[in-house]
Here is the input.
Amino acid sequence: MNNPSAVGTPAPAVHARSLTVVRGPRPVLRNLDFDVPPGRITGLLGPSGCGKSTLMRAVVGTQAKVTGTLDVLGRPAGHAALRSRIGYVTQAPSVYDDLTVRQNLAYFAAVLDPGRAAAERRRRHVSQALTDVDLTAHAGSLAGRLSGGQRSRVSLAVALLGTPELLVLDEPTVGLDPVLRRDLWDLFHRIAAERGTTILVSSHVMDEAERCHGLLLLRQGELLADDTPEALRRRNDTATVEEAFLHLVDTADALKEQAR
Here is the structure.
């Protein structure tokens, strides 16, 4: 979708060429080529087990046996300089149950931005993150006593500390009620629009695809499409992204069958 060498075109936030990940005897991701544009929401969609989480771990630099090219914010994925520039939310909430919400955020803020000289900056970042995820009223509550949705929001708040340039969110809306899902997507759009943050968000719920600026559709470790929701619908002559995805799956299966 993007040509980083084109005049006037900003460099992609994530640039992948021939990206492959092998686990055991088999490849989990196969020769992926894609760019994630800066300041936009890119959805990584596909069924469970297609390689979404593996790709996200590769982007944040925690995945082993990665080959090919994978540059993130102008650096090789996993570079130490990227640590404070990327916010990452895994599927399981990463919080300490015996700490309050504010204490959790203060702890992670100190890890990201240590030292006495940064104390006031950390305080501002914690307060802003609490406001972003609408947890200010629960700041003094123990994380272990929160609902599942609230715990997910604490993890998101941790990822927002320090206003990262890239947010990598692994199925952040799984198990949440429709109202909270809507509110989180509103937050994602506000962060991208107001702060210029790049967001890479995965989901297996196809209706969330319509909320993204661009889409990467994965199936069995292969990239089926890299386009906007509107272009996918138009190119496949379908009413929804889900129908377009199913059409692409059927086409890919038919081509493989012919090749046998």
User: Anything to note?
Assistant: The two ends are 31 Å apart (CA to CA). The domain at 10-85+168-177+201-259 is CATH 3.40.50.300 (Rossmann fold).
